[in-house]
Write a structure and sequence with these properties.
Layout lengths: L1 H39 L3 H19 L16 E3 L6 E9 L5 E9 L4 E5 L13 E2 L7 E9 L5 E9 L5 E11 L5 E3 L4 E3 L7 E3 L2 E6 L6 E4 L4 E11 L7 E15 L2 E5 L32
Parallel strand pairs: 10-16
Antiparallel strand pairs: 1-2, 2-3, 3-4, 5-9, 6-7, 7-8, 8-9, 8-12, 10-11, 13-14, 14-15, 15-16
Helix pairs in contact: 1-2
């Protein structure tokens, strides 16, 4: 009798798991449609409507039993990042609601089954470099990279590289620091960035924040070949966009942040001299005169 009950229980659990996965898969089809419209529709009202539908359905899907093991591979327009230890995953997405205004959304789902909705307060936050924020005071961003590190005091934390389309004129790239308390609550901001200046006290920052011209390109990412974070050096110039004054733009050089004794220490001017012209690939036939595009000699 006990053996029969175990078999029935096993069948029930397997059946429930398959049902849950199928239910999430059905939701994912709808989510993929709304994510596409939310990101790519030309009409503002369509993007906003799709954003509302996507948010509601995604929170429903993520709260479905067994959702942590579902990859959501069909959601091409949102960011899905896992740390190396696979202890959680973080989803972030954005929607253009018109006039250069972007809304940011996100959530953290832990392997233990906890879900934390991220509420964007970027434009009302103060002391960006120094403050610690809860998930309800999140600096809204689309994350494009995540790294797992340990602080000088032995605490694990996660570096989140993100972008926020702050206005029609300026974007922000940032490296925020996510950590979990002993109770399992997520917080953003730890003083792991250090700037050392001769004759002055060292400066410690909870995160790095870089505002730059929205029509420019800026690098903020970890370079494994150099074992450091590479950041475009910014200089102040008049904006090329009408009705906007001065803004920050890359000057072609870089600064770096290198991990030294548990802190990311700033290194000034690590890159090459600015170039007058942008580099371009050498044409295939430059050194193959009298050859065709396949490299064979012309007859």
């Amino acid at each position: 009798m006990m053996k029969i009950l175990k078999v029935i229980l096993f069948v029930f659990i397997c059946g429930y798991s398959i049902f849950a996965q199928a239910s999430i898969a059905d939701l994912e089809k709808e989510l993929a449609y709304h994510a596409d419209v939310m990101t790519n529709a030309s009409a503002v009202q369509h993007r906003i409507r799709a954003m509302e539908q996507f948010n509601s359905l995604f929170y429903q899907a993520i709260n479905t039993e067994g959702s942590y093991n579902y990859p959501f591979d069909e959601l091409k327009w949102i960011s899905k990042k896992y740390p190396e230890d696979q202890s959680f995953r973080i989803f972030t997405w954005e929607a253009n609601t018109g006039e250069g205004d972007y809304k940011y959304f996100g959530l953290i789902q832990t392997k233990q089954g906890n879900i934390f909705q991220l509420t964007d307060h970027f434009k009302t936050a103060e002391s960006l470099a120094d403050e610690e924020f809860s998930h309800e005071q999140w600096l809204g961003s689309m994350y494009y990279n995540i790294m797992e590190e340990t602080s000088a005091h032995g605490h694990k934390y996660y570096m989140l590289y993100g972008i926020n389309r702050y206005s029609a004129y300026e974007n922000i790239k940032l490296i925020d620091i996510l950590f979990f308390t002993d109770e399992g609550l997520p917080y953003f901001g730890l003083p792991v960035f250090r700037k050392v200046e001769k004759g002055q006290n060292d400066t410690y920052l909870n995160r790095l924040v870089f505002k730059y011209a929205s029509d420019g390109q800026m690098t903020v990412n970890y370079n494994p070949g150099m074992n450091m974070i590479m950041v475009d050096n910014l200089v102040r110039k008049m904006s090329r966009l009408p009705e906007h004054g001065e803004t920050m733009v890359p000057d072609g050089t870089y600064v770096g942040y290198e991990l030294v004794n548990g802190y990311w220490q700033k290194i000034e001017q690590i890159a090459v001299t600015p170039m007058d012209k942008a580099p371009r690939p050498q044409p295939v036939l430059d050194q193959r005169k009298n050859s065709n595009i396949f490299g064979r000699k012309n007859k």
